[in-house]
Amino acid sequence: INLGFFTRYFIERWKDSIISAERLEKEKSQVQFDNLRNQLNPHFLFNALTSLNSLIFENQQLASEFVQQISKVYRYVLQNKERNFVLLSTEYEFISHYVKLLETRFEGGLKIIFDIREEAFEKAIVPVSLQILIENAVKHNVVDRELPLRIEVVSVGDYLVVSNNLQLKKRVETSNRQGLDNLRSLYAFLIDKPVVIEQTDDRFYVKLPLIPS
Predict the structure, then answer these.
(1) Are 210 and 88 contacting, i.e. CB atoms less than 8 angstroms apart?
(2) Helix H or strand E encompassing 184
(3) How buried is residue 162: exposed, middle or buried, by Cβ count under 10 Å (0-12/13-18/19+)?
(4) How far apart are CA 130 and CA 128, in angstroms?
(5) Nearest-CA neighbor of 138 among 79, 98, 182?
């Protein structure tokens, strides 16, 4: 009888430890999720304000439009910071404003091309994940009018593929090399399909699984 009691006791404790470990892993993923979902890199804001300062003296009309785009970007982040995911159509509208800011900042050194099927717009994506991937490409690669950085955002099956030509900087001062790992953990928290990261000799790819809405 005692053996049966202790066996049952230890089995229950073992089950509790598994549940506890799973809960801790879930909570860890949730913290990573919250941090990533709510972020808009402060370096982006610093660079945007620096560009704005130049535009104020050079082109006041463009400076005014630049400020409007910044306000739309931050409005989107505030409106969606509590959501796990948004429709790709909503994210696309946001990223269009963000792209205009980058293109104004880099003056022809950056080309961003979208090729997304209509049915993909009805699926979902984690808020700000496109911004994170585009900023990641800009952060790690040379952007120059003589050597444009070309970023492509394409829907392929159940994935959204973000890729860029490789022209890597020799040094990236603000990189902690955790962004893509956090993105993987984040999507693993929401969907069974993995985030796929690939690199060839001349191109870098990140494939985000589209989430059924």
Answers:
(1) yes
(2) helix 179-190
(3) buried
(4) 5
(5) 98
Single-letter amino acid, residue 92? Y
Render each residue's pLDDT in the chain as its tens digit; 213 residues: 555 555 565 556 655 655 555 555 555 555 555 555 555 455 566 667 776 777 787 788 878 887 887 788 778 777 776 777 889 999 998 888 888 878 887 888 999 999 999 999 999 998 888 888 988 898 889 999 999 999 999 999 999 999 999 999 987 665 555 678 878 877 887 889 999 999 999 999 999 999 998
Long-range contacts, 20-27 (Cβ 8 Å, 24+): 26/189
Query: How far apart, in whole angstroms, are the C-alpha atoms of residue 40 and residue 212?
Result: 25
Please give the Cα distance from 53 to 59 (Å, whole number). Answer: 10
Which secondary structure element, helix H or strand E, spans residue 161, and what is its range? strand 159-165
Closest CA relative to residue 162, chosen from 211, 198, 189: 198
Please report where in the chains the tokens 């509590």 appear, as a residue: 82
